[in-house]
Specification:
Blueprint (H helix, E strand, L loop, with lengths): L12 H17 L3 H14 L14 H39 L6 H21 L9 H44 L6 H33 L4 H6 L2 H13 L2 H16 L7 H6 L4 H18 L12 H6 L6 H33 L5 H12 L9 H8 L6 E6 L5 H15 L6 E6 L9 E5 L3 H7 L4 E5 L7 H14 L1
Parallel strand pairs: 1-2, 1-3, 3-4
């Protein structure tokens, strides 16, 4: 039923593993971004140096950063491991690590939350099926309560000091890089990592916890902008608008809107993959952005997610607008300049090749880099044969977070399905981690398809290289039309 890849799993296995771990970390943060934004807005408005200082309302800031945000993270981490029961035990245990220190315990929540839920899950297995009828609720409630209390005490004495030391060490590393003027070097690792779909892991797994701790002390952190700055991607896409060829050039204007205004950075990754040398442009742009914020000592008060210019400006600290805006503009300018040189240097060769440099080449290049080919639904004819046996009614776009690029792709396909007059088919989006096997057809970026197949092997899987403009969408619509006429 599933369209199979002919690939071996060896290639890219480490990357998939890192992606999975990163997704787990970001999975605890992403659903709670709204709470970070709420905290950031209240801080920006009501603290003594805010836009409208209010001593009474400013009392919200401390409890939110100390208790609300870590407990939300812990609860989400617990639910990811052991559903509601895991979330409750994770929340109880995390109170121990919060009270055991005097710093915001984001890292502690990300460790204690899922660990506590896992322990609860193992404990429940000890007497699963052995409890007499009528005593299930009694045993469940007391076992969770007793274990939660024990874990809270353990976190207070055992985990809190360790995480406090770890947080201090990470902050010391950041301060060391700042003092030596080396912080821009982070972009050498961050920008290639983004293109390999490690963006959520980098941003929400590393920079958000450390940056939030910084923001509570200084009122801002430039770490929130290391990954989220939309400037490098903007410069790259603008270079394609002026100097690209083929579909890459014609699709670049739409990608600019999606990336810069919508904050979906994934949209520019295929443009880098089609010419790997272009990673130098986004590295250069990223380093410029970070350096600008270092020079102007500017930063954000909370994470900007998604990395839209609107989100960045909304989260900018009151006295940091000049530095932050310049960091975006200069990052875009440097990225544009480097990308333009690279594109111009290969333009004649691309035009002569008739298709080289086009987005379609990115697929082949990516497959070559991965050491495999993938049939996926490239042969929808094969899928159609399958589809006659399994009626497709539930189409799901899946990405790392389930909020950005997948939502964009679902919107595009939903409009196509509607225009085709096809009824009885739902098109939605969700995170890969939330795929539950109920999906009939799953559409993912080609770099994420292997993970999606592991979550829902019974579905038909379609890989695309560009969520905004993939020819595979028309093939899916044809398939649905074919099914509707049978």
């Amino acid at each position: 039923m599933t369209t199979e890849s002919t690939a071996t799993r060896a290639a890219g296995g480490a990357r998939v593993g890192v992606q999975r771990f990163g997704t787990f970390l970001s999975g605890m943060i992403m659903p709670n971004i709204a709470a970070f934004i709420a905290w950031g807005l209240i801080t920006a408005l009501f603290i003594p140096t805010g836009w409208t200082p209010n001593e009474t309302l400013a009392t919200l800031v401390g409890p939110m950063i100390t208790f609300l945000l870590p407990l939300l993270i812990a609860n989400m981490g617990g639910r990811m491991i052991y559903d509601t029961r895991g979330g409750v035990v994770a929340t109880i245990a995390t109170m121990g690590v919060i009270v055991g220190t005097d710093i915001p315990m984001f890292l502690g929540a990300m460790i204690v939350g899922p660990l506590s839920a896992w322990i609860m899950k193992q404990v429940d297995k000890l007497w699963a099926g052995k409890i007499k009828a009528g005593f299930e609720m009694l045993v469940d409630n007391f076992s969770a309560g007793i274990l939660g209390a024990i874990l809270a005490v353990g976190a207070f004495f055992g985990i809190a000091p360790l995480v406090t030391g770890l947080s201090s060490a990470l902050e010391a590393v950041v301060d060391w890089l700042v003092n030596l003027g080396l912080l821009p070097l982070l972009s050498i690792f961050v920008e290639p990592g983004k293109v390999l779909f490690l963006n959520n892991a980098i941003n929400h797994g590393v920079f958000t916890p450390v940056g939030t701790a910084q923001a509570t002390e200084t009122g801002k952190s430039l770490l929130f902008l290391v990954e989220a700055n939309p400037g490098p991607g903007l410069g790259l896409l603008l270079a394609f608008m002026f100097f690209g060829v083929g579909a890459a050039r014609t699709s670049a204007p739409g990608a600019v809107i999606i990336q810069f205004l919508g904050g979906i950075h994934e949209i520019y990754f295929p443009y880098v993959l089609m010419k790997p040398l272009l990673v130098l442009s986004v590295i250069g742009g990223g380093m410029t952005g970070v350096l600008t914020n270092v020079i102007f000592q500017s930063g954000l008060i909370a994470p900007a997610s998604p990395g839209s210019i609107f989100a960045v400006l909304a989260m900018t600290e009151k006295g940091s607008y000049l530095g932050v805006i310049l960091s975006v503009i200069l990052a875009a300018a440097v990225s544009f300049a480097i990308a333009a040189v690279i594109l111009l240097a290969s333009r004649k060769r691309d035009l002569a090749a008739g298709g080289a440099g086009d987005l379609g080449a990115a697929v082949a290049a990516t497959e070559a880099n991965k050491g495999k080919s993938s049939s996926v639904l490239g042969n929808l004819g094969g899928a159609s044969a399958t589809a006659t046996q399994t009626k497709i009614q539930n189409v799901v776009f899946a990405c790392d977070a389930g909020m950005g690029s997948s939502a964009m792709g679902a919107s595009v396909l939903r409009n196509k399905v509607k225009k085709a007059g096809i009824d009885g088919v739902t098109v939605t989006n969700k995170a890969i981690a939330n795929l539950d096997g109920s999906e009939d057809l799953v559409i993912t970026h080609q770099d994420l398809t292997d993970r999606a197949k592991q979550k829902t092997p019974g579905a038909v899987h379609v890989s695309v290289d560009n969520f905004m403009n993939s020819p595979k969408y028309d093939e899916v619509v044809d398939l649905l039309n074919q099914q509707a006429s049978e």
